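--- STAGE predict ---
source: upstream dedup step, 1 unique chain passed
mode: sequence only
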Amino acid sequence: MFWIEAEGPGRLSIAARPRAGDWLEDEVSFWRQGGVDIVVSLLEAHEIFDLDLRREAEVCEAAGMTFLSLPIPDRGVPESLARTRELILACQTQLLEGKGVLVHCRAGIGRSSMIAACILKSKGLAAEAAFALISVARGLTVPDTPGQAQWADDFTLG
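--- STAGE serialize ---
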């Protein structure tokens, strides 16, 4: 989990997907103990199945966290602008309430950084500045593709 240093209430982080099987409860517990209140998964259904993460929502909720999902194709961008806006607004509301929000995809680089950048844009940052903060937190340049960077740059709440 990589916390992004941004101003304002609440804390935003990105991460790779949790380990599955016997490790899932431990991973989720680590997130919870680290201050995560809301988990956002960007995995598609086939990834959830392949990675054996079918119980992730249940385990997160049992640990006292809210679980949200917005499937996005790997190395891709959201298919629904309306659903993405709903998710960003929900995360923004939670951050304003001082909550910890964790956004994850498979590797914690492309999709998660794109959505985190959109969340930061909703707080007034430019996409370029948001990606710079996320890159520092993640320790590598994000996002994964130019298309993801462009999508975040073009994103507005409407």
